[in-house]
Amino acid sequence: MAAQSVEEHLQELAAIVDEAERLGIDPWPPDKPERPWARWALGSFMIVLMVSAVSKVFFRFAQV
């Protein structure tokens, strides 16, 4: 059932959090450590894609 007011919504949220804590679930886990390798991997992949696309365009106009 949808809450009709902010107070009802907060009561529902508090009940959900209490139930989760009782079941041993942490509703707000700590932040994950930053992973710089993922940013480097994605950036490298994007660079390879861009170089590949540009080289295809240049090769189309090349006189071999």
Q: What structural class do helix, strand and pairing data support?
A: mainly alpha
In the predicted model, the low-confidence regions spanning at least 5 consecutive residues are none
Task: Kindly state the percentage of residues in helix.
Answer: 55-70%
* Main beta-sheet annotation: none
In short:
67% of the residues lie in helices and 0% in strands. The chain is mainly α.
Outline the structure in words.
The termini are far apart. It contains two helices and no strands. The protein is 67% helix and 0% strand. With 64 residues, it is an all-alpha fold. It has helices at 6-22, 36-61.
Structural descriptors:
64 residues; mainly alpha; 2 helices; 67% helix
Q: Secondary-structure map with pairings?
A:
Blueprint: H1 6-22, H2 36-61
